[in-house]
Automatic annotation (TrEMBL):
Gene3D superfamilies: Phosphorylase Kinase, domain 1, Transferase(Phosphotransferase) domain 1. Its EC number is 2.7.11.1. It catalyses: L-seryl-[protein] + ATP = O-phospho-L-seryl-[protein] + ADP + H(+); L-threonyl-[protein] + ATP = O-phospho-L-threonyl-[protein] + ADP + H(+). Belongs to the protein kinase superfamily. It comes from Stentor coeruleus. The keyword Transferase applies. Residues 280-344 form the AGC-kinase C-terminal domain. This is non-specific serine/threonine protein kinase. ATP binds at residue 51. Keywords: ATP-binding, Kinase, Nucleotide-binding, Serine/threonine-protein kinase, Transferase. GO terms for molecular function: ATP binding; protein serine/threonine kinase activity. Residues 22-279 form the Protein kinase domain. PROSITE patterns: AGC_KINASE_CTER (PS51285), PROTEIN_KINASE_ATP (PS00107), PROTEIN_KINASE_DOM (PS50011), PROTEIN_KINASE_ST (PS00108).
């Protein structure tokens, strides 16, 4: 995709952006608070994804803090392996985030459709995630919710990290914040302990484990069940001698899913992962510049569950007024073109 932050002579960026500036084509995803639409900026002619979020759902689920946190972080982050923000705005009923259009759908849907992933493909997948995490961690940010649903393919088959609602600064005391998805949460997060960037590497190990075995290392019906499974024993991946998977992939997974963060690969930085023998001779520079051909074949049409996307939400009791709407979501507006125009 082109860079939306560049100026256009026909478009005056000093005029506040609104939903009327976009033509909605069709829904392509669903979040906890609304749908994601493929849209076209009417004046720029560029395609984006627009995340529409209902304010009443956000308030009823007590998620104003995470929504504003995501908007704040997206306003300062920009990287080729993230889903980047271009516009943010609101009206009385909804919040809107206009971001990079990821034509390939999310990795969870891909896993459902393609159960068998080859080791070469898994290596590319993990390298994309590591590239995104490397940038986040260099900026002292822990994502804290790395999972297949939050990894999305672009049209070239490269994977990008999205959803920063519960991301936090790694330098802060995180012992009181335990949000996340239990099956991918690091033990230190599950047990209400202070945690940092190694928590994201644990989630990466879980994803790799899941790609090989089709289940996660620590399972349970509830968060407590999963925490008890983690506390019970250290899981290790073991494969038959005649397995198609190499010992290098088994080793990196087992070192990533270590329960104690100080024993986990990546505790001393991302270079521990990049130097692991699993990535021997891997061309990181070709990946960073996106000159490497992705092994993933992308279907730009059939890459999401339409029935799930269109499912209606349960009714909520919250009523949004003009007064509390403005107060709760003050400062949400963002326009990347304004920042590009201010550069010398």
């Amino acid at each position: 995709m082109g860079n939306c932050a560049s100026a256009d002579n026909k478009f005056d960026p000093t005029i506040a952006i609104s939903v009327n500036d976009f033509e909605a084509k069709y829904p392509i995803g669903r979040g906890g608070f609304g749908r994601v639409w493929k849209v076209i900026h009417k004046k720029l002619g560029q395609q984006f994804a627009m995340k529409e979020m209902r304010k009443d759902l956000i308030v009823s689920k007590r998620s104003v803090g995470s929504i504003m946190n995501e908007r704040r972080l997206l306003g300062i982050l920009k990287h080729p392996f993230l889903v980047n923000l271009y516009y943010a705005f609101q009206n009385l009923e909804n919040l809107y985030l206009v971001v990079d259009l990821m034509e390939g759908g999310d990795f969870r849907y891909y896993l459902v459709k393609h159960r068998d992933i080859k080791e070469h493909n898994l290596k590319f997948l993990c390298a994309c995630i590591i590239a995104g995490l490397e940038y986040l961690h260099a900026n002292n940010i822990v994502h804290r919710d790395i999972k297949p649903e939050n990894l999305v393919f672009d049209k070239k088959g490269y994977l990008h990290i999205t959803d920063f609602g519960i991301a936090r600064m790694s330098t802060a005391d995180n012992s009181s914040t335990t949000s996340g998805t239990p099956g991918y949460m690091a033990p230190e997060v599950l047990c209400n302990q202070d945690h940092g960037t190694p928590a994201d590497y644990f989630a990466l190990g879980v994803i790799m484990y899941e790609c090989i075995t089709h289940f996660r290392p620590y399972v349970g019906k509830t968060r407590k069940d999963i925490r008890d499974a983690v506390l019970n024993k250290q899981v290790q991946l073991r494969l038959d001698d005649n397995s198609e998977w190499s010992q290098e992939v088994v080793d990196i997974i087992n070192r990533l899913i270590q329960r104690k963060p100080e024993n986990r690969l990546g505790f001393h930085g991302v270079d521990e992962l990049k130097r692991h023998k699993f990535f021997k001779d891997f061309d990181w520079e070709a990946l960073y510049s996106k000159q490497m051909k992705s092994p993933f074949e992308i279907d730009e049409e059939n890459n999401f569950d339409y029935d799930h996307v269109m499912k209606k939400w349960d009714p909520v009791q919250e009523k949004i007024t003009a007064h509390n709407s403005q107060k709760l979501f003050a400062g949400y507006l963002y326009d990347a073109t304004l920042f590009s125009m201010q550069k010398p």
